[in-house]
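Supplementary Methods. Inverse-folding protocol.

Structures were first reduced to a discrete structure-token string of length 81. This string, shown here, constituted the complete conditioning input.
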């Protein structure tokens, strides 16, 4: 019985790890470069903060896309941000 529980726990950990890897692959930002940049500034960053930055980036890009399309263009310009 204990071996089955251990196997289930291992399978669960592997699945969680695979989900994290898939999420990192879908990111727009390079997490390791972001962490390196912040470490150069003598600070640390949490995973939740990275998620928040990613969310803000998506929001900013979506707003730029909306503005671009509203102006009947297909190219996002710096002033759309």
């Amino acid at each position: 019985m204990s071996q089955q529980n251990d196997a289930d726990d291992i399978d669960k950990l592997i699945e969680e790890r695979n989900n994290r890897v898939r999420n990192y692959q879908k990111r727009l930002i390079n997490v390791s470069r972001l962490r390196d940049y912040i470490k150069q500034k003598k600070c640390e960053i949490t995973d939740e903060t990275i998620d928040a930055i990613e969310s803000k980036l998506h929001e900013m890009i979506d707003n730029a896309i909306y503005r671009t399309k509203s102006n009947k263009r297909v190219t996002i310009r710096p002033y759309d941000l």
